[in-house]
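Hey, I was hoping to borrow your eyes for a little while. No rush at all, and the record is pasted right below.
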Amino acid sequence: MHEARHFTDSAADVIAAAQRSSAITIRTLLPQDHGRWDAFVHSCPDATFFHRAGWQTIMEQGLGHASHFLYAEQNGRILGVLPLVHLRGLLCGKALVSLPFCVYGGIAAVDPQARRALDARAQHLARELEVGHLEYRQREGDIPDGWQGKPLYATFRKTLLADDEQNLLAIPRKQRAVLRKAIAAGLHSAVDHDLERFFPLYAASVHRLGTPVFARRHFALLRTVFGDDCDILTVCQGQQAQASVLSFYFRGEVLPYYGAGSVLARSSGANDFMYWELMRRAGARGVRQFDFGRSKLGTGAFDFKKNWGFAPQSLPYAYKLIRSAALPDVNPLNPKYALFIRAWRRLPLPLANLLGPHLVRQLG
């Protein structure tokens, strides 16, 4: 009897130990785990460029926000990730967002249990931090039960063909005519290795829109953190730079993210030529997916992308109210911000460039 009992107790211990070892554990990303995190992100079908570990550095060191980059682990293997940032701003209040200043985010996982565990930890953290809401900027998927959606944005993605002429012919005729005119006007492009042409164009462009600008160091940090997966393409007419775009590369996809044109760019076609050149150059390096990024419904940017033959895909951003009774409407189309936008446009550009970084970091 004694031996049988001993055997039974040992078996129970083994089973309990096995269950503990196979349990999913939620951990917080540390610097030494960036490599493991990124290896998972590159292999996970749900993941995007904005799930990369480098965004923790951008959010903390560049924008001054506390991050909570969570990952689900089982037996030493990462099964899911959820990058979160604790956003605190005058306009948006307190929120836990995946991921602010980025167009995509939310949970990227290869296991349903890991997904549920990450979501449960995020909701617990949101309550602990007493935020107004928890936000997942999903690119695809459904709005979970008990969450809210906000049909505000669409993204535009399209497959690139291997041949430049085929890609050109895939563009609708009217837009193709604009491109041919720009090509005939002698516009040319080059990859820049610094911010000397990009930043003045970008700062002036967002100022004309009435939008605060990021600090120059934000873009420098992006280049440092993401290395060859982040580059700048500038379009010139003669020696004059007229348009420039900072783009990201991820798993055979290019994402033009920060684009800008001078006051001459519209008449010369430099903005259109810039995106065509990015397609052409990206195709030459084996990129087969072009992500035109998100735009608000009913805006000129939305129509511009449709004119290129890109079909809009609604973004199912999901919001969970925690302490707020309603979601904040932080949107340039909101009439209550019209006065601010008009006033910002009237600021001298040097003053706007000085004040802008302090405001933009609160917008998300």
In short: The chain has a mean pLDDT of 90. The first helix runs from residue 2 to 22. The CA atoms of residues 96 and 134 lie 5 Å apart.
